[in-house]
Amino acid sequence: MPYLKHIVKYINDELVKGLLHEPCFDNKKVICLAQQLPRRRDDQIELIPSYVNENGEAQYVGPEDDYDLIVYHRINSITVGKAGNFKGYGDDRPADTNVARISLVVFGRRDKLKLTNDELAIHIQANIPEAATKDLLKQLQFFAANININEIILNDLQVFNEEFQGFTFFLKPEQFLFKINYTIESAFLKKCFTKCNC
Prior knowledge:
Helices cover 23% and strands 43% of the residues. The chain is α+β, with helices and mostly antiparallel strands. It has one domain. The model has no long low-confidence stretch (mean pLDDT 90).
């Protein structure tokens, strides 16, 4: 759904102007929504985390030596439901709800950042906003968009195997990879989404 890229961009903007504005994070790449793209190598399928732009062009977003920090988000699933009635908006129909399950994946170089994965994880956790701003909600025509962190996975090998399926582990000792799983819980009325604006 297009609203997710706006909320994820808001999360990134808050991280970049806050925590990631510090000098130790100058050499960074912060990506909005990435996805795993399949690639055939010999008889095996590999999944590569990539950002795909509006023209369908893909860009690799995983670990690379050119950056000390790489951050990207990946949508895992969306659960839909109904919420209570929201009065004052013309009718008393129940709002539709979406709970998007998203992973924020972080690659870092401990030798350059001078931080361990758990230290960086708690700093990112503390700087992720808990909800979209009123202006963003108005722009998206939502009643609510709450952001909740559910889990931090610090096991490099586990995260690597989830993000780089089909690859042999290739992280160096000075590199780390972790994942922050979070949800965006949103409430809206269907009638506000009758046109796609494509």
